[in-house]
């Protein structure tokens, strides 16, 4: 059995330098501070976090854990990948075709003008939609020129400074407002709160879901079929988002590693899971709301088959088909993530 003690020690020695209680030093907690005012504030609930924790599975069996792996903590943009899973469930139910224009199926929710009506579900999933508008008070411009740690392209301008939009499908940009618009579209597609759908279709069949929460912004409510429902964000950039345990994250990653199959039941279409790992034509480091390592650009010590869910605050969910392994680490200082991956890779051999 591989010895992961060095990897665990590395993670525990390099906790992200955010306070554990967001109320104790709010100016040092989260990522909303870098947004231009008045958008540099929380708009949904947050809560105190635990310390560094994680889980490693090999061959479907847990072989290591550390910290508090059963504690439900905010997971930031790992939640984006959960939206991709929900889209796959919708596809399996005949609710969407990834190449269909969203406006065709869902008129009246923000995809109807000349620019946005070209946007397909695939564009939204690969972050090439260039959607333009305001989603629950947040304009897409807030995220113009945004760069995140694993985005290899050089800076294009000042974050929040308007740039000329390109035709949907021709420009890649990491943009939380557009992801929130995707979540709103999925809510209208299912016509049920997305946390309920995710709990029933994914977490419960996997034997997870204890203390799972997926909260929206305080003002992100819509009425569908006479019912008031909250739309949830694909992260915790402005608060809200998914709170989940490391063990549940590992369960979800195992489902993806196994091609959507669990206990003899296909929870997600195998073809959908495979498509999530295909590189975007204009951003080959990215799949469908997942990060890819085909060139070794993310982590040079990880296998080239590896793919990742990543969230701010040091959340990494690593699926490694080459070693039949799942690795979850939480609240790891991103500046030391490569060292953690190196130690895990060394142990895996």
From TrEMBL:
Q: Which domain of life is it from?
A: Bacteria
Q: Name one Pfam family in it.
A: Beta-lactamase
List the Gene3D superfamilies hit by this protein, alphabetically: DD-peptidase/beta-lactamase superfamily
Keyword Ribonucleoprotein (UniProt): no
* Keyword Methyltransferase among UniProt keywords: no
Q: Where is the Beta-lactamase-related domain?
A: 51-329
GO: which molecular function terms? hydrolase activity
Record's keyword terms, sorted = Hydrolase
PANTHER family to which the protein is assigned, alphabetical? BETA-LACTAMASE-RELATED, BETA-LACTAMASE-RELATED DOMAIN-CONTAINING PROTEIN
Q: What is this protein called?
A: Serine hydrolase
**Biological source species:** Ramlibacter montanisoli
Classification lineage: Bacteria, Pseudomonadati, Pseudomonadota, Betaproteobacteria, Burkholderiales
């Amino acid at each position: 059995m591989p010895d992961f003690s060095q990897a665990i020690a590395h993670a525990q020695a390099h906790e992200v330098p955010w306070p554990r209680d967001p109320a104790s030093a709010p100016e040092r907690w989260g990522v909303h501070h870098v947004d231009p005012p008045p958008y540099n504030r929380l708009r949904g609930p947050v809560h105190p976090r635990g310390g560094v924790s994680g889980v490693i599975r090999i061959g479907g069996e847990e072989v290591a854990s550390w910290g508090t792996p059963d504690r439900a903590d905010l997971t930031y943009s790992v939640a984006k990948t959960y939206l991709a899973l929900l889209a796959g469930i919708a596809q399996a139910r005949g609710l969407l075709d990834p190449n269909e224009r969203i406006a065709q199926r869902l008129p009246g929710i923000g995809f109807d003008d000349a620019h946005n009506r070209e946007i397909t579900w695939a564009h939204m999933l690969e972050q090439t939609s260039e959607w333009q508008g305001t989603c629950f008070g947040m304009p897409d411009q807030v995220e113009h020129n945004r760069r995140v740690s694993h985005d290899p392209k050089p800076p294009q301008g000042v974050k929040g400074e308007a740039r000329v939009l390109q035709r949907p499908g021709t420009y890649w940009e990491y943009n939380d407002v557009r992801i929130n618009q995707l979540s709103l579209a999925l809510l209208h597609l299912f016509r049920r709160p997305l946390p309920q759908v995710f709990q029933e279709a994914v977490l419960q069949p996997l034997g997870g879901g204890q203390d799972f929460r997926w909260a929206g912004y305080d003002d992100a409510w819509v009425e569908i079929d006479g019912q008031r429902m909250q739309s949830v964000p694909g992260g915790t950039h402005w608060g809200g988002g998914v709170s989940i345990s490391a063990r549940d994250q590992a369960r979800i990653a195992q489902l993806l590693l196994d091609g959507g199959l669990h206990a003899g039941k296909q929870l997600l279409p195998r073809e959908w899971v495979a498509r999530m790992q295909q590189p975007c034509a204009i951003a080959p480091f990215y799949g469908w709301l997942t990060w890819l390592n085909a060139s070794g650009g993310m982590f040079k010590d990880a296998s080239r088959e590896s793919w990742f869910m990543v969230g701010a605050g040091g959340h990494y969910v690593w699926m490694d088909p080459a070693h039949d392994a799942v690795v979850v680490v939480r609240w790891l200082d991103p500046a030391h993530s490569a060292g953690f991956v190196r130690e895990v890779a060394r142990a895996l051999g």
